[in-house]
Amino acid sequence: MRKLYPARSLLIWPTLPLDVYFRSNSVWKPFPLDQANCRVFSLARQAIWNTCAALGLHPNDTVLVPAYHHGSEIEALLQAGLQVRYYEVNQNLEPEPEELQSLMSTDVRALYIIHYLGFPQDAAFWRQWCDNRGILLIEDAAQALLATLNDKPVGSFGHMGVFCLYKTYGLPDGGAVIADFPPPRPTGQSNSGSWRVFKRHINWLATRRKELGYFHLMLKPIQTNLNRFWNRINKRIHKEFEVGDVSSPPTRMTKFLIPKIVDEKTADRRRENYRFLLKHLGDMVPAPFAFLPEGASPFAFPIEVNEPRDFLARLRLKGVMGLLFWLNPHPSLPVDEFPRSRLLREGVLALPVHQELSFENLQQIVDSVKEVQVNLAVPAIPAF
Q: Member of which family (predicted)?
């Protein structure tokens, strides 16, 4: 077994500072929480399921969806009774109009686009494209809360925009949706969310204390393996895609923490962190993310490497807990028919960039990546 060295433990997910309980409630609300037609569920996939019916999508209607996806959004559409028809993303991770046109038929009712890693797609163009064909535009801004396109919030261009609050802030959960015809508010009972809050606090402490970070690094793989074992014996091999109770509201802790943790400077800090990493690791960044648009609100920092699993394992020894970005597609996807999406899944690593990282944390990421790259003699891969 490789030896772990004392290091601060840095995760993709934003952490939760201990002082959050002593903060005053913010008078500022980020989009879409400031909109009357916004609804908040426990998870974004539940928001998708509910909003499809509210927008008038019927069973067996078809939605054009990207082959490069997480999988939970696909499951939500299928559970809503819809059909999905996959399209390949181009080198900018956008659809090709010609391919979309070839996929059109009378049963196609919506186009689904994803704002990958908080980088805005040209949603205004796609809204016009959809309007010209009489279909709906669904914007997946799960990783793009606070992002803008031409000073207009990402997620506001489509007939539906969906967001994950916990991917931007250290909250237990929270999936927001805005729609021309919003669904009813969730009617289920709120869970407390206290255990997930506790873990976010531990993650925050582990980014600041090497002693705690060391134990965090040792325990994290054990927790991951136990979860995999539990899911396997319970025959939940696709647990990461499960929609869950579609009537679930956000946890009580999420409702309590939202006004205390939202901050108008969050996107700026994420952009600053991204620029710092881009300055030092830019030769490893995939082409679609090699330039930071003004309105982006980065969820993570992507790099391309050979032998990504070994690379990740070595990074973990140095305290950097990256992940293979969307490694597992939804089981309905014919993977071999979409080679670009397959290459992206197998070669793009996501590294932390969230607003709670300090300069020392960012320097740890840079030093760790460079050391692993040298040790593995990994050259930068040409961009897609």
A: Belongs to the DegT/DnrJ/EryC1 family.
φ and ψ of 257, to 5 deg: -85, -25
* CA quadruple 99, 110, 153, 132: dihedral sign: positive
- Report in angstroms the alpha-carbon separations of 361 from 292, 320, 353, 357, 368: 20, 9, 10, 6, 11
Over range 244-273, report the average pLDDT.
Answer: 97
Q: At residue 39, does pLDDT exceed 60?
A: yes
Tell whether pTM > 0.90: yes
Give the count of beta carbons closer than 10 Å to the beta carbon of residue 52.
27
Q: In this structure, what token pair is assigned to residue 136? A: 């709906």
Neighbours of 37 (CB within 10 A): 12
Q: What integer pLDDT is reported at residue 376 of this predicted model? A: 84
Smallest Cα–Cα separation from 312: which of 325, 327, 324, 304?
Answer: 324
CA atoms of 250 and 40, how far apart (whole Å): 7
What was the pLDDT predicted at 382? Answer: 47
Question: Distance between CA atoms of 140 and 238, rounded to whole angstroms?
Answer: 21
51-74 pLDDT, tens digit per residue, is 999 999 999 999 999 999 999 999
Neighbours of 272 (CB within 10 A): 14
Q: Are 146 and 264 in contact (CB under 8 A)?
A: no
What pairs with residue 41 in β-bridges?
Answer: 175
- Catalogue all structural domains in the chain, each as residue range(s) with its CATH number: 23-179 (3.40.640.10)
- Checking if the pLDDT of 381 tops 60, the result is no
CB 151 within 8 A of CB 31: no
What pLDDT is recorded for position 112?
98
